[in-house]
TrEMBL record:
Subcellular location: Endomembrane system
GO molecular function term, any single one: purine nucleobase transmembrane transporter activity
Superkingdom, natural source: Bacteria
Lineage, highest ranks first: Bacteria, Pseudomonadati, Bacteroidota, Cytophagia, Cytophagales
Protein name: Permease
Transmembrane segments: 12-34, 40-62, 69-88, 94-114, 126-146, 166-182, 189-208, 324-341, 380-409, 421-437
Keyword field: Membrane, Transmembrane, Transmembrane helix, Transport
Membrane topology of the entry: Multi-pass membrane protein
Assigned protein family: Belongs to the nucleobase:cation symporter-2 (NCS2) (TC 2.A.40) family. Azg-like subfamily.
A single GO cellular-component term on record: plasma membrane
PANTHER family: XANTHINE/URACIL PERMEASE C887.17-RELATED (PTHR43337), XANTHINE_URACIL PERMEASE C887.17-RELATED (PTHR43337:SF1)
C-alpha cells in the first residue's frame, strides 16, 4: 500500500471517513427531493446520487489521495431545478446535457492545468479568509439544521426558543461533543452523533413534533420498508445534441462558473484548515483533485443528476483526523449500501450532525490569525470574502467579491504587480458570473 495511506493510523482514517459520510449523507435524499421537482423520478435521481458519490469519492481517495468527499452539489441542484428547468422551461434531459458539457469544459481546463494556475494565483490572505469563511458557513448550516438560528422578520435572524425540544437536544449534543473533542476522545465526533441521535429518540414520542426529526418510525418496524431496489432509469437519459443549442450556452457557463468557484474554494479552504498543502504551500495533489472534480460533473450528466463537486462537509472528517485518501474511500463505500437501504437514512436526524458542523467551523478559523489585519490592502478583500460567504449563503459570492476588491485596491494604490495573470483570468470569470446573474 502507498505511503499516502500510512501518514496517520488506518483506524483514525476509517473513523474520519464515517464521520464525513454522516455529515454528507443528507444529500442522498435531499438531492432527489429537489430534482424531482424538475420532473425527474425521485428513485432514479437517488440511485444516480449514490453512484456519483461512490465512484467520485473513490476516485478522490485512490487517484487524488485527498480526504475529500465528492457528491452532487447543493445550490447546483436548485439552479438545475428552479432556474434552468422551471424558470427557463428547459427539458430535464436537455439540462442534464448542459451539465455534461459543463463537465467537459472543466475537463479541458483541468487537463491543460488552467484551473491549477487559477488556484495558484489566489493570494494567501484570501486563502486564509476563504477557509475561515467556509467555517462560518458550515457553522451557520449546523445552527440552521438544528433550528437554533431561525428567521425573524424584524431582525432577519434570531435564536430560537429554548422551549423547543429540537433546540434542547441540539444544545445537549453540542455540549457533549465539545467535551469529547476537547478531551481528545478517539472517535469523539461519531460518539457525539450517536448519543445525540439517541437523545433525539423521545422527540415525537413523548414531546415535540416527530416530523422535525423524521426518524421514519414506520420503516423501522417494517423490514420491507427499509429495502428498495435501485432505479437505473436516469442513466444515459441526457440530451447531448439538444443541450448544445446556442441558447443554452449561458446555462452551461452558469453551471461551469458556479462549480469552478465552489470547488476552488473547497480545496483551498480545506487545505488551509487541515494543513493539506504540498512543499510549495499549494493544496495537496491539486491537479488530480481538480480533475476528479471535473469528472464528477461530467459523470453527473451521464448518470442523471446535477453537477458533482467537492464537499465542504469533508472538513468534519479532517477534524476527526483524516489526512489521506483512505478517508474519502471509506466515505465513498458508506454511500454504496444506500442503493438498497435509502430509507434507513432517516435514523440519524440532522440535529445529530449539526453539533459536528458547528465545531468544524471553530476548527477552520485558525488560518484567520495569519492575515495581517494592519495591512489594509490585504485585510479588506480578505474580510469581504470572509463575511460574504456566510452572509450571502454562497461561497461563490464571497470569492467573487474578495477577488474583485483585491484587484481594484492593488491597482489603485500602485501595487498591480501583486495581481498575477492568473488572478486577472479569475476576475474575468467573476465578471461573467455576475453578468449571468449566478
Amino acid at each position: 500500500m502507498s505511503t499516502a495511506f500510512t501518514t496517520s493510523s488506518r483506524r483514525t482514517e476509517v473513523l474520519a471517513g464515517i464521520s464525513t459520510f454522516l455529515a454528507t449523507m443528507y444529500i442522498i435524499v435531499v438531492n432527489p427531493a429537489i430534482l424531482s421537482q424538475a420532473g425527474l423520478p425521485f428513485s432514479g435521481v437517488l440511485t444516480a446520487t449514490v453512484l456519483l458519490s461512490f465512484f467520485c469519492s473513490l476516485m478522490m481517495g485512490l487517484y487524488a489521495r485527498n480526504p475529500i468527499v465528492v457528491a452532487p452539489g447543493m445550490g447546483m441542484n436548485a439552479f438545475f431545478t428552479f432556474t434552468a428547468v422551471k424558470g427557463m422551461g428547459i427539458r430535464p434531459e436537455v439540462a442534464l446535457g448542459a451539465v455534461f458539457w459543463a463537465g467537459m469544459l472543466f475537463l479541458l481546463l483541468s487537463i491543460f492545468n488552467i484551473r491549477s494556475a487559477i488556484v495558484r494565483a489566489i493570494p494567501q490572505p484570501l486563502r486564509y479568509a476563504v477557509s475561515a469563511g467556509i467555517g462560518l458557513f458550515i457553522t451557520l448550516i449546523g445552527f440552521e439544521n438544528a433550528r437554533f438560528i431561525v428567521a425573524n422578520p424584524a431582525t432577519l435572524v434570531s435564536i430560537a426558543s429554548f422551549n423547543d425540544p429540537i433546540v434542547l437536544t441540539f444544545v445537549f449534543g453540542l455540549l457533549l461533543m465539545s467535551v469529547l473533542v476537547v478531551r481528545d476522545i478517539p472517535g469523539g465526533i461519531i460518539i457525539g452523533i450517536i448519543l445525540t441521535t439517541l437523545a433525539a429518540w423521545p422527540i415525537g414520542r413523548f414531546w415535540g413534533d416527530a416530523s422535525a426529526v423524521n426518524f421514519g418510525q414506520k420503516t423501522l418496524v417494517n423490514f420491507q420498508g427499509i429495502w428498495s431496489m435501485p432505479d437505473f432509469s436516469m442513466i444515459g437519459k441526457l440530451d447531448l445534441v439538444g443541450s448544445l443549442s446556442w441558447s443554452l450556452w449561458p446555462v452551461i457557463f452558469a453551471f461551469a462558473f458556479t462549480d469552478l468557484f465552489d470547488s476552488l474554494s473547497t480545496f483551498v479552504g480545506v487545505a488551509e484548515a487541515g494543513g493539506l498543502q504540498d512543499a510549495d504551500g499549494q493544496p495537496r495533489n491539486l491537479n488530480r483533485s481538480l480533475l476528479t472534480d471535473a469528472v464528477a460533473t461530467t459523470l453527473a450528466g451521464l448518470v442523471g443528476t446535477s453537477p458533482g463537486t467537492a464537499y465542504i462537509e469533508s472538513a468534519v472528517g479532517i477534524a476527526q483526523g483524516g489526512r489521506t485518501g483512505l478517508t474519502a474511500i471509506v466515505a465513498g463505500f458508506c454511500f454504496l449500501p444506500f442503493l438498497f437501504l435509502s430509507p434507513l437514512l432517516s435514523i440519524i436526524p440532522s440535529i445529530a450532525t449539526a453539533p459536528a458542523l458547528v465545531l468544524v467551523g471553530a476548527f477552520m478559523m485558525k488560518p484567520i490569525t495569519r492575515i495581517e489585519w494592519d495591512q489594509l490592502d490585504d485585510a479588506l478583500p480578505a474580510f469581504l470574502a470572509l463575511v460574504l460567504i456566510p452572509f450571502s449563503y454562497s461561497i461563490t459570492q464571497g470569492l467573487i467579491w474578495g477577488f474583485l476588491l483585491w484587484t481594484v485596491i492593488k491597482v489603485s494604490i500602485g501595487k498591480s504587480r501583486e495581481v498575477p495573470l492568473g488572478l486577472w483570468i479569475v476576475d474575468i470569470f467573476c465578471v461573467l458570473a455576475l453578468a449571468s446573474g449566478h
